[in-house]
Amino acid sequence: xxxxxxxxxxxxxxxxxxxxxxxxxxxxxxxxxxxxxxxxxxxxxxxxxxxxxxxxxxxxxxxxxxxxxxxxxxxxxxxxxxxxxxxxxxxxxxxxxxxxxxxxxxxxxxxxxxxxxxxxxxxxxxxxxxxxxxxxxxxxxxxxxxxxxxxxxxxxxxxxxxxxxxxxxxxxxxxxxxxxxxxxxxxxxxxxxxxxxxxxxxxxxxxxxxxxxxxxxxxxxxxxxxxxxxxxxxxxxxxxxxxxxxxxxxxxxxxxxxxxxxxxxxxxxxxxxxxxxxxxxxxxxxxxxxxxxxxxxxxxxxxxxxxxxxxxxxxxxxxxxxxxxxxxxxxxxxxxx
Amino acid sequence: xxxxxxxxxxxxxxxxxxxxxxxxxxxxxxxxxxxxxxxxxxxxxxxxxxxxxxxxxxxxxxxxxxxxxxxxxxxxxxxxxxxxxxxxxxxxxxxxxxxxxxxxxxxxxxxxxxxxxxxxxxxxxxxxxxxxxxxxxxxxxxxxxxxxxxxxxxxxxxxxxxxxxxxxxxxxxxxxxxxxxxxxxxxxxxxxxxxxxxxxxxxxxxxxxxxxxxxxxxxxxxxxxxxxxxxxxxxxxxxxxxxxxxxxxxxxxxxxxxxxxxxxxxxxxxxxxxxxxxxxxxxxxxxxxxxxxxxxxxxxxxxxxxxxxxxxxxxxxxxxxxxxxxxxxxxxxxxxx
DNA sequence: AATCATTCGGAAAAGCTTTTCCGATTCACG
DNA sequence: CGTGAATCGGAAAAGCTTTTCCGAATGATT
Lengths: 337, 337
What we know:
2 copies of one chain form a homodimer.
Chain A: H1 12-19, H2 23-30, H3 38-51, H4 57-64, E1 69-74, H5 82-95, E2 99-104, H6 109-121, E3 126-130, E4 136-137, E5 149-152, E6 155-156, E7 162-166, H7 168-181, E8 187-191, H8 197-209, E9 218-220, H9 225-236, E10 244-247, H10 250-262, E11 272-274, H11 280-283, E12 292-294, H12 297-312, E13 320-323, E14 326-328
Parallel strand pairs in A: 1-2, 1-3, 3-5, 4-6, 5-7, 7-13, 8-9, 8-10, 10-11
Antiparallel strand pairs in A: 12-14
Helix pairs in contact in A: 1-2, 1-3, 2-3, 5-12, 7-8, 9-10
Chain A binds a DNA duplex through residues 1, 11-13, 21-25, 27-28, 31, 33-37, 40, 55-56, 58-65.
């Protein structure tokens, strides 16, 4: 350690000296081990406090063979999905005395590999991969051995990998059932690109909720408001119009609502609209505000934290779990009183 | 180290044994030090590769007194501003052999304090604070001593703190000058809450660009599309309407554009509109697409990385620097041919 | 006075890596 | 043959912390 360069200029040896005890006694006092008088412990604690002593985690980790650190690797360059997940993770890991550090690979495999390398060098106790789409991703280009690894809002090509995801299909069922409960009988589904697994699952949830599916009411396009506008225009041009639209995400839903407004269609009176993601930037700015499905990403993060802790403690975890989503009704489906 | 638990099951001692050399020789070979025959070095490198050896960063950092790690502490729970900054930082720090790890405090001072504590325990070589608004923030509740600390897109109550920020005022000048260059003569400014420093600076840039300022053309409100809509409605109700509107951010601008459309005002023909932030979620979805001012956050991150490296190497850095923004013209100000 | 219990000191060892230093060996050259 | 250079081994030390073990000192009890 270069002295005077960092806030941690004092070692345990300094604390011991300051407290007038031996090095071993100082350690025992701070770690509540050994048989020391309370007076001796207090003396050491006071000395440590006065010196602003902070144990050197590096030395501790080296000695105990565990760093109590977890790395989170994300390829979500916008942070939209990762941040709530991280928040939930951090809460749970912190309660277990584990620090969480994130690296953002920005969808660059080389960068990701490098991050893994760095985290392994730091001897993290586990790794979590997450991103901005839940489809399978390539196995990392480094052997991870028995290190606990968990995919959250993400999956792996590796068979048996432990994965935790929102229940897209269930969420879509919620949305469709909500529209049905409102008496809607002709529900369209405007969604994203077919190569997203989430798109397929949401579509499956929609289809499973209907007694009869009309393929002409299912439209795929890009994740954008513009696509929502175009799709709505197409639906309006049909001989028989839908009386509700379940959009694959909130951006598409926003576009749909805008096109309906442009065409003097009243939402939800004439056509109800519900999105997916519960992205407040979209739901709140839309006119009327969007009903949506929340993926509960923070809860997903909490569940992931608990799961990883179990893995770190030696339990075996594998396979994919899906956590339920939540319906968030707003004025785009529920008329305001 | 608990064996078989992690990918790093081999120590340098194992590599030496595998290569049939001494521990010291193995170290010298991997670190390109000492006087070894190339043949000996190659033998050690091969052994290390075969065993998948990765040096223990903890032991290295302990020995050399430097961790080559930097902590990034953000209070931006959405990641919108932090992610591009992080990307720029990571690029520059990586080139200098330094790892970057992020903790997200989600605007909770207790959580932030805890993160600082964790990072200090890991003996980071420097700390970077960033967030979602650039105003002064309280001094962290922990003494950081001489540890290099840099505020990026953020400022500190601590006098002389090193800060790096986008040039809000300059960006506002760019936006206003752009409108002037298009022949606009009556430019309004619809912006965010007065308690944001960025709001005050952007207003100052706007005012400085005009030979004559009409206070009635400056409206403050919340950061939302709804406020943009309301403000536009107010401006349209004025005896003399503006022929251009400079919005404090893209969300407000989006709202303005929508209200103009609702009132059959053609953008940019009748009234040109420019935003700030260049947030693609807004700029691209708007009709027409929004001209905006980009804060160059990735570049800010790169500059911050370079600055922090200098600080880590012992140079003194203090005070606030501002990096220029970039004008991004789109159809909301420039008519499409 | 002797014995036992409590408390602490301090030495040693371990974790892993780097670096230095000294000694030993081998080979080449004068 | 003697000397010097190149090469490597291996021991030691350092970084910081934790833990164990044994010995020493003190106070209380018999």
